[in-house]
């Protein structure tokens, strides 16, 4: 793996570490496809899809999870 210090210009063989980006890109894309299909709505409570959250986190919405803004 290449050092974090820049050692020249990038080319087609340059390897970039995208591990931390994979989860958010894949999750957001998948969720938005479900929204497009009408299977979920962003303002739906997560507990509607994960019943085990009904007692503790019943007011958290899908939108809040995607934006990391929930209590």
* Order of H and E elements: HH
What gyration radius follows from the Cα positions, in whole Å?
18 Å
Task: Identify low-pLDDT runs.
Answer: none
Helix content: 25-40%
Number of helices: 2
The count of β-strands is 0
Instruction: Look at the helices and sheets and give the structural class.
Output: mainly alpha
* Main beta-sheet annotation: none
Task: Note down, in words, how this protein is organized.
It is a single chain. By secondary structure, the protein is an all-alpha fold. The chain is built from 2 helices and no strands. The longest helix is centred in the middle third of the chain and has 18 residues, at 19-36. The chain is elongated and about 55 Å long. The mean pLDDT is 85.
How are the elements arranged and paired?
Layout: H1 19-36, H2 62-66
List keywords for this structure.
single chain, 71 residues, mainly alpha, elongated
């Amino acid at each position: 793996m290449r050092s974090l210090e820049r050692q020249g210009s990038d080319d087609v063989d340059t390897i970039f570490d995208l591990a931390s980006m994979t989860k958010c890109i894949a999750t957001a894309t998948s969720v938005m496809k479900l929204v497009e299909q009408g299977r979920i709505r962003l303002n739906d409570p997560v507990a509607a899809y994960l019943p085990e959250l009904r007692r503790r986190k019943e007011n958290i919405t899908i939108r809040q999870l995607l934006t990391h803004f929930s209590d």
